Amino acid sequence: MRAPEPRGRTRTRHSWATVRHSSALGILLAGTVGVALIGCGGGVPAAPGSSVATASRAPISSHGTSTAAPPSPRPSPTAQAPSAPKRQESIAVGDDERVVDLFVPRTAPGARAPLLVLLHASGESPFLMASESHAGELAAREGVIVALPTAHGRRWDGMVSPGDSITPSTDATYLLGLMDQLAAELPVDHGRVFVAGFSIGAVMSERMACQFADRVSAVALNAGAPWSDACSPARPVPILIMHGTDDSTFRIALASQVVDRWRVADRCSGDPVVTKLSDIATSELNDQCADAVEVQYVRYEGAGHRWFADPDATAVMWDFFAAQAPR
């Protein structure tokens, strides 16, 4: 069990988007073959015959002297907040069938919702990731569809040792197919497809940005590490890196490597804007990058390997995603 972090006031850069819900209409999954409902985990049951189709930032630099005033505080999500309905489904991409937890919010007729694919840590589960990140509450509050797939063997194919050849990834293939299926069956905004993860899930998220930049709108890494030394994204990708200075699983120097390479890959110029988010968290934001993308690095002083709480990592992540232009 991870030790709890000290909680304080949550300060973030952007205001929360106002989400309007329809009281009469929910999202219904289309009735195509290929996916069987295997449980609900507290969510509402699927309609008869419903399914989803089967598819065949380095420590703060001394030159970063620009400091932004802290925005207004916003409370972290709580377990008592409203949650979107949860569906647990078995979804196949070709012969690769996996359990996926889905939080699908109610939305107005004709509206399109962002999609967030959230990746758990090694040996953990979508259930634990949803609990730590308050995924259901995020879905309800922000009107975002949240999908939490299961890694093959419960460990994402995210790590490549320096000098090793890059081989095709079963997990990457599955995630791409999952995105396609969800976009076909749910009202997904194709310009706002996000990938985020914790620990090895964060490493896998970076792999998706490096190899499939044309498929993801932005990524967020919580306590991750470099995917490989051969990251060459096809286009600039907005990226958020969050890391604790006392992380003994992935040292802070690894986060520094990720930040440095994305500042180069995204062709950022000028000094980062430095903002104090809480007593323990400091943000460095590079907002002068190619194609108007941003690179943000949030350091949590004294924090270990965890989903951060002060400020809440989910709130920081969604503020970052919401600030990016649709791709």
Give a verbal description of the structure.
The protein is α/β, with parallel strands linked by helices. It has one domain (36-57, 75-323): 3-Layer(aba) Sandwich (Rossmann fold). 21% of the residues lie in helices and 22% in strands. It contains six helices and twelve strands. It has helices at 126-133, 135-142, 170-185, 200-211, 252-265, 313-323; strands at residues 36-39, 66-67, 86-93, 96-103, 113-119, 145-149, 188-198, 218-222, 239-244, 273-276, 281-286, 295-300. The protein has a twelve-stranded mixed β-sheet with strand order 1-3-4-6-5-7-8-9-12-11-10-2, with helices on both faces. Mean pLDDT is 80; it is low at 1-79.
Concise synopsis of the structure shown:
The chain is of the alpha/beta class and 327 residues long. It is 21% helix and 22% strand.
